[in-house]
Amino acid sequence: MEEALLGNLSPQVFLRRHWQKRPLLVRRALPAFNGVIGKSELFALAARAGVESRLVQRKGERWQVTHGPLPRARLARAGGRNWSLLVNGVNHHSAAAEALLRRFAFIPQARIDDLMVSYAAPGGGVGPHFDSYDVFLLQGQGRRLWRLARARRFEQVPGAPLRLIAGFRAEEELLLEPGDLLYLPPGWGHDGIALDPCFTCSIGFRAPRGAELAAAFLDYLHERGLPDAAYRDPGLRPAMRPAAISREMVNFAEKQMARIRWDRGDIENFLGRYLSTPKPNVVFRGSTGRVPDLSRCEAILNAKTQMLHLGTRFFINGEVLVPHPGQRPALAALADRRRAAGRTLARAGLGHLILEWHRCGFLSLEPKT
Q1: Nearest to 114 by CA among 22, 51, 193
Q2: For the whole model, what pTM was predicted?
Q3: DSSP state letters, 5-52
Q4: Average pLDDT, whole number, for the chain?
Q5: Residue 109: pLDDT above 60?
């Protein structure tokens, strides 16, 4: 199935030839593709407070960005041309969008971000820009012209509400029609312009930067407990230079920082929790109904749930679990396939845990037919 999506390339060949190297255009990757959500449903999502959305408008050389929630009346005032609505995390609200996102499971789940859907009026787009991550662009209804420029150090338009490329010059133009798929590596300049009212699905990937990881790791260390000691200077003498920082205070700070310790286990534990933690706007709705018979159900992870594993550790929505060795195969299957037979999980002694995750809304239990 992935071969058809990738233009008869196997995932192995695609990753070797194209991944983070060069673009790939696949004509009719999904020939019957008609999108994952309708205009009315997308507008309704954009009006919700818990959904990340943006309205991008262009008037001549001026750009305006309005962040959601975006009531339908606000979208109606956008006019007939040169605007685009972008809604992130549509896979959290649409089964079709979630199924499409999982078509890209040949990429590790820890790298997959979400599925964004954009609706654009003729002339609409977000301007010439580049991303720091890989992206697949799947065209739904309508046509969009993509103007591309290979990766380089682009200058940005100062003061613009978007990260626009200054003086963008396209080296190639590609017209995408329904079902066409375009892969772009990080750093490639691209400008997508709607020729008709059109939908585009963007499958984006996480690419955390070192500074971002370091800041989050310091928060993790703080939660775990950092060394704590009060500075004391009982032998203090009158200051000759009051503004100078004393050598004793520098020595104290250096000694305290040197007491901070971590090892590879801390790194692994932090990374699993960090990569599986939901975005701030994600909310799980727990189940309050009758507890189903696990042996007669299939456990299916919520589209909002991120479940990962590393060695003996499992991570689900920012929480860490170290199961017994006999439980690991069943949990790994649930994490990798995002579903597992309830009977298998129960036999592994995971019944109580799965029912707790069900109550929290991390997964659903669907009767087996």
Answers
A1: 51
A2: 0.90
A3: HTTS--HHHHHHHTTTTS-EEETTSSTT---SS-HHHHHHHHTSTTS-
A4: 94
A5: yes
